[in-house]
Amino acid sequence: MTRDDGDGRGVTPSLTVADLLAAVPGLANSTELLTRTLATAPGASLGFADVLAAMDWARQAVDDGAAAAVLVQGTDTLEETSYLLDLHWDREQPLVLTGAMRSPGQPGADGPANILAASAVATAPSSRGLGVLVTINDEVHAARRVRKSDATAPDAFTSAPFGPLARIHEGAVVYANRPRRWAALPRPTGTHVPRVALLEASLGDDGALLEAVCDAGYDGVVLSAFGAGHVSATMADAVSAAVEHVPVLLTSRTGSGSVLSSTYGFTGSEQDLLARGVVSAGWLDAHKARILLWSLIATGSPLRRIREVVAARGGHPGGPGSDLDSTMDRWRKRDSQ
Hints:
Elements: H1 17-22, H2 25-30, H3 48-63, E1 69-72, H4 78-88, E2 95-98, H5 111-123, E3 132-136, E4 139-142, E5 147-148, E6 157-158, E7 166-169, E8 172-175, E9 196-200, H6 208-215, E10 220-225, H7 233-242, E11 248-252, H8 270-276, E12 279-280, H9 286-298, H10 303-314, H11 324-336
Parallel strand pairs: 1-2, 2-3, 9-10, 10-11, 11-12
Antiparallel strand pairs: 3-4, 4-7, 5-6, 7-8
Helix pairs in contact: 3-4, 4-9, 6-7, 9-10
């Protein structure tokens, strides 16, 4: 992103890959690079098709002999695009994403350092087999954990509550933990682009938005609920109606920690919602849960498969009292019609 001083506007996307690499002169001298400008768009304007197209390019690059691939993008959607890529990345070679919190014209611009660090992570033998990684501010994050938790700070990206996987120390990549690698999901290939709504619980929420989403024909819903997975009693009634038509995933709006399964028992509690047929996303935050649900729906997964995959990747079972069988019966009847 750069600014045209003559037009009075803020910074906008304008730099090509050649421009970015020109700011990191040592990189070309130490690594053989194959580069391409895939798009020039702000992160907020990226869509699922853009991300999957970038993955196809990266796949082809490593299949043609590249040791790894690095994607540079705007940071607004980095926590979502990286997880979408991670769900479908089926190569041992690392795919590393990075970006910048300060534009090239600002003092202390971090883009060149982040590109150099991402390249170091991509080419490190210890990065193989870890799926998609996010490297920024000299930290390495797992795609399924990373969140943008500050609007402007250089250390905007965090991985609460477990922390980053590694740090860049004197140019070397030092890993502290290595998360489990899941088998890649099939790449969505159909023409249907699912619509998955993300709704956040708020004070006085009566469930009207959830009802409107279902009436509008959305394919799935993620609830970003209070605390450990709670909504109002009125909202709980809307949830009961919603699960009759679409999968509903339950997450916490706190951004850290897991949805509970059997601690609270009031109407609208996690135990009550599980009994109504929602799917607990466990440790996944709402944005990651939405990406996962989108991918599963896009590849034609039935409700039982959605429950199994979300429970496994969220690290959370359905929970005691979860009315799986009756919900499955309702969905089988709907699918047979």
